[in-house]
Queue: 2 jobs
Job 1
Amino acid sequence: MLDDKNFKVKVGLAEMLKGGVIMDVTNAEQARIAEDAGACAVMALERVPADIRAAGGVARMADPTIIEDIKKTVSIPVMAKCRIGHFAEAQVLEALEVDFIDESEVLTPADEHHHVDKHKFRIPFVCGCRDLGEALRRIGEGAALLRTKGEAGSGNIVEAVRHMRAVVGAIRRITVLDDEQLMTEAKNLGAPYELVCYLKKHGKLPVPNFAAGGIATPPDAALMMQLGAEAVFVGSGIFKSSDPAGRAKAIVLATTHYKDPKIVAEASKSLGEAMKGLDIRTISEDRLMQTR
Amino acid sequence: MNRTIGVLAIQGDFQAHLEVLGLMGVTGREIRNSGDLEGVTHLIVPGGESTTIQKIAQFDGLWDKLVDFQGPVMGTCMGSILMARTILSPDARGWGMINLAVQRNAYGRQINSFAARGKIAFLDHEFEMVFIRAPKIIKYGDDVKPLAWLGNEVTGVISGNKMALTFHPELSGSTLVHEYFLGL
């Protein structure tokens, strides 16, 4: 699978997004602001996660009109979300020729037991993960890119940090295992054996791993990059802040220059109010998106 | 000769280039600001989003230093766009390192991305070329020589010590193109 030519082309686009910021946008005007700020891609959706959380009800794939408007407006890649397991929404997104599909826990799951068989599609998929087992299962299903789930729409980085540390820590652990231990490790992780062997050999995932779910400030982005993220998704953090254009630019700059605190400091100046955010402990279990 | 290989690391698949250099036993330097460019002899400009790079590279005068870079440069995909004199759809100004006109996303969106075997002037066998939302070379000047082809289509050119490729040799698991570049 990993040597397959089509898979290589899918992972190729994920490689191109590294070091960049992918921003949630709900209309053509926001897409323009994101592109002007230096976003490397946009995620087209009807509502940002914070508003989905507030609105309740069933959250579904965006109206194709919104997606087409955004595609016409920007020259950077356009992503869109489908519900977990909703392969018909994914088929629609492929027919609309979006550049990447996010099978996302931000939308209400359509199937509580199965994800989309992503090998069947020519468009690459990104999926969220909280730990290595989840990451490897998604790759096994054909995901060409992973991201932490974090807790979308919370404006709180704590869950993304937890998930990134879990994945990176578990990879590190596998690199020091004996070959005899790999099958048991695969069993314990609930992950494909071949991918566990790949990790032992290469010390890294066969697809890029980005951060998402709670990034609201330039240092949030720099933190995730230093923890091992190769790019960041920003959802509600930009268009729920008081100065979206300024904040978008600042997060882009902090993501490129994550190793240089002086530049991150400069980028953080006078940005106005960040999104308000939520203490994760105040979100009841049934309203968490990451457990989907 | 003392070589220092810089890879523009503002955004894009710079890691893939660094890994290919690593296979050759060469440690590349990540270039994010103008200071990083100090002492660099060879510059690699990776794939990525040219609109993004155009914005971030203005930050501390890096853009102007890149335009003035005198040593060998290899641009892949987006890199070939930035090196060009003329950029189409949307129209923009490149560095003008090569007398070249390129059209962005000329094959279409990601669904039209592909990998296929093509020919490279300095190799006696075919080479796998990965095209990701790739540009096309529309026109090149008399001082520019074609270097790579997919069928009859020119997918790479060279002019002096500047080479521009519309595909991604860094994604093919081969060091051959990078070896050629380091010989420039």
Job 2
Amino acid sequence: MISYDKFSLDNGLRIVVHHDPNTPLATVNILYDVGSRDESESRTGFAHLFEHLMFEGSVNIPDYDEHVHLAGGESNAFTSSDMTNYYITLPVHNIETAFWLESDRMLSLAFSEEALAVQKGVVCEEFKEHYINQPYGDWMHKMRALCFTTHPYKWLTIGKELSHIEQATLSDVRAFFFQHYRPNNAILCVAGNVTSEQVRQLAQKWFGDIPPSEKPYHRQLPAEPAQTTFRSQHIYANVPIDALYMAFHIGDRLSPSYHPTAFICDILSSGASGRLYQHLVKDQTLFSSLHAYSWDEHDPGLLYIEGKLNKGVTLESAETAIWHELEQLCQMPVSEDELGKVRNKVEAAIVFNEVGLSDRAFSLAYYELLGDIDEINNEIDKYLRVTAADIQQTAQQIFSRENCSVLYYHAQPPSEAAEQNADAST
Amino acid sequence: MTVLNRKKAPRLAPPAALHIQSPTHYTLPNGLPVCLFNMGDQDVVMLKLLFPAGTWQESSRQVAAFTARLLREGTTSYPGQTLMNRIEYCGATLQTKAKNNHAEIVVYSLTKHLPQLLPLLYSILTESEFRDKELNTIVQNAKQHLRIQQEKTDYLAHERFREGLFGEQHPYGYRSTSDDYDRLTRDELYAFYQRHYSAENCVLYLAGKLSDQDLQLIAQYLGGDNWLNQHRVGDIAHNPVPFVPQAVTLHKPGAVQAAICIGCPMFNKTHPDYQAMMVLNTILGGFFGSRLMNNIREEKGYTYGIYSTLHSYMDGGDFAIITDVNGDVWEDAVREIYREMELLQNELVPAHELELVRNYLNGTILSQLSGTFNLAATLQGILVYGLDIDFYHRFVETINTVSPQQLRDLAQRYLSPANMLQVVARA
């Protein structure tokens, strides 16, 4: 149970206050309602590149990080397909510094050519570190492109390709900022030993005079048409072992299938007692690792299954074994024991997530973004209401062949890999 | 109405005096020492058993790691997968792992599930099975994982770096091969378990919101004589090879980034210079505002991140600068890393920069000591060295008083580019 207070400023900035008297720290969290799904397909990776530029100085404060550190604080941010989140955690007696810094970078950035050039380099290295200079590093790019024909989830937040990041211009940056980084597109959550009245005064003082956007952004993303046929792609690469990747379309974050889908992932793959691990890694020893999961995406996203094969196992037999497990979920209701397990797991996960101050601050902002902050304390009940029949029904909706896309990732020595891929693309 | 002056920073308050909530220390009837952090608002608990059963104590390579790993694979009363099914039924997580000088068994759970979990934990401590079937699967999976790791430049560089610091036979330095995994036997692991995982070799850390009843239950399961083994693990000596500074290149064809490790052996937390070195390291590469981060990332855009760290182990430690950089500019990155070390040796740290680092570190310590689990983890990190919470009071004192001259002297003594091992894994 997380307590909070909520109000808005005249410019549309929504403010959430969470009072915790037992910590000497405070977290100031700002969530902007913009993510990589709001990019155009020819300029991907931009929301994330922009997040980097938010640390490169604002109109009145050239050195953001320096002031965070002088105040004894730590700051970071992340970008996803759906949102961009920034936070500072610092000693509570320096909380006004966070208001000063965050309000100035909402007012306007410095927009420096040098900073843009450097951060393009940094983001390109981030891209390489996570997606190129890693065995199998490109699989998620390829999978999203295979599963989505229309919706912007077809590219990853880091961007579709390095060239998109390299081509970004300062005028792109400026336009993006004034479209999305306005008070009426943001949620400010303050957590710590502070009262609502203190936060109200500080917020009015520092954020009150920032104008809202003249033309508010209305998100109108093209819906992904239902997938009607099985899709697959073979990849030949210089990796040590074969890997299998499967993806299935699932409902959106607010759909009734969200909680059953989360349970399906847990039943298949949570910890050491998940079905996939116990049956296919331990009993049948087909895989050396195997996981099922979904990201909590706002629009209809994907449920992924990824596995590394053991020596002597073919991709075909590995896939067949997974289908068998998925069919079991569709044909038989889960046992009381399994249902009890995933219920207990989610209850523990929700309580543990309330331990950290910054986690609480982010969660509050996140539920407000989803549409109704009150739901933060109803989530556990929604999970506990899920029945075995709900799980079976949701499994039947998800695990059909026409709703599935598969990447067959073949281990090949370097010379052969180049040749095979040339063949595959013709 | 006054106009807001946005160019002027709000006034900063001086760091508040450090208030550390001390843990309670007591002993169970079988002699097991307990360190209790009974605090927090949520009904959660962390229960951690620490044993001298790390790489340092193992009889041959990988024995410590696989012994710890197999503790999750079944007991006489809860054979095979039954064990983890029961634990995970409670929504709890069980971690078992070996580190350099210790192995640990850690349970995170809602407090209300303790009555179901404690018999399971007790069973792990007294009657783990170590069956060949599970060992074989775990070994095969580990070998597959190793094959993937060996394709990564950062893994290759880091492994070679540790070997260079401590030696290829040293528990902190050896590099594992598939053959090491193949040589493991069930009997050797079981013997290691029997010898090391006993009450007289254990320390129990408890953190969370615990009632007297909870504590009694824990004492009931873990305080008995039946998991004593009449053997205390003694001191073991391993001497690192004499350190040889050198530059090593590892080639990984096709790599688009170069993985860089630069560093040298270093003392651990018990050394009188450790705390001042922490300040120096923070300035060089210990946080987002460090000199290395500013130079290599924020000025040149060569990398996503670069950090330097003082790793403290029970027997020594190391100083390490670690980064992945654009493969085309690795030479320039290496040059700049050494230049930053030389600057610290030759010039005094400016007052403004030192003030910033002082404030930052004060905030970091506050954060590390806030929240039940943070506090428990942080204090465990000094208690295992025989240090007490006074360490943090002295640390704050050092942070606030260390002079630019002292920092320059430390850089001259410990951060000479000529005394570094440099490993670069690249195309």
